[in-house]
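On to my pick:
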Amino acid sequence: RNESMKEHDHKALRETIVALARETGFKVLLCPEDMTQMAVGREMLWDKLPADVRERIVWREKFWLTDEALSVYVRSAGLFGSEMHSPIMAIGNGIPAIVCRFEQQTSKGFMWRDIGLDDWLFDLDVEADHARIRPAVLDLARNPEAARTKANQARTLVRQRQKHMCDVLRRELMG
């Protein structure tokens, strides 16, 4: 299944990287979140980029640990990709993050809807969502203050819900 879906699941991301490099002043860092994604990320993203675009792209050759990743994310305009851990770390720090999920990732991506980021959640199994990814990423890049405001609103909502949960637990456990 993975082999048969590789191009399908990476094409919209690759096209978005190309648009971001050509239409904005941003550099793009390609950094797979998981060691198992290093080879496929190189094959399906980096190796297939046009030469003029590669000049604006940095390929992270080695896998990195969470602290290094987060130190880069907090200095970025935002991120997009098809995993959840980096977007969660980003939103937790007020950094905009767009999630592109697919069926095999279970339901974890749907948490974006729960925190008010449903227009930053894309389903790669839904063809109509493919065309929406590039405009969303370009909007994030072109409107950084609005994107950070949205990310901070989601972070605030999560913190409110965590506080409420802890208050309920405290009441129930303390009797």
In short: The radius of gyration is 17 Å. The helical segments are 2-23, 38-44, 51-54, 66-73, 85-91, 111-114, 127-142, 144-174.
